[in-house]
Amino acid sequence: MNRVRVRIPSKKGEAAYFAKLRDGLSRLKTFDTVEVNPPTASVLFKGAEADPSTIAEAAESGEFFAFKKEVEVRPVPLSRRLAQPIQGASAFLTRSTGGLVDLPGLAFVLLLGIGAYQVLRGNLRSPPWYTAFWYAFGFFTKSLADMASKDDSK
């Protein structure tokens, strides 16, 4: 399923316009879903036919809007595609534990445990114990930075 977001800054906050746009584009049956967000002036098109040229045709035929310039299709970076399932797993873990545990916290505890296990076994010369500590520290500081940025945005 394709997803394409279109922004219409000149109509920001105009709920009536976006409701009319959603209804008109939904009637065309070209897209699986059309989601509008008046406060951000955006329209999200979902479906197999959701591509910039089809959206431009549908919008112009209903006289809703027209693209001013050729639409640039930006591919989703690999890092974001890889991070999405991990973020989903973290959200599931957080919901399942009532907010007590998230994926970075679980990784921190597990890697710290692996490091402690290596130390207790007397395996002080091989890299795994300090590598595990380093990764545990990295996960922990990253989760702290994420929490701080969430607090700052409130």
Could you explain the architecture of this structure?
- The protein has 154 residues and is mainly alpha-helical.
- Helix 4 packs antiparallel against helix 5.
- The chain is elongated and about 75 Å long.
Task: Describe this structure in a few short sentences.
The chain contains five helices and three strands. It is mostly helical.
Give the total of beta strands: 3
Q: Please tell me the total number of domains.
A: 2
Per DSSP, the total helix count is: 5
User: Averaging pLDDT over every residue, what do you get?
Assistant: 79
Furnish the topology, listing elements before pairings.
Elements: E1 2-7, H1 15-27, E2 33-37, E3 42-47, H2 52-61, H3 78-96, H4 103-120, H5 128-153
Helix pairs in contact: 4-5
Which short descriptors sum up this protein?
single chain, 154 residues, mainly alpha, Alpha-Beta Plaits, 2 domains, 3 strands, elongated
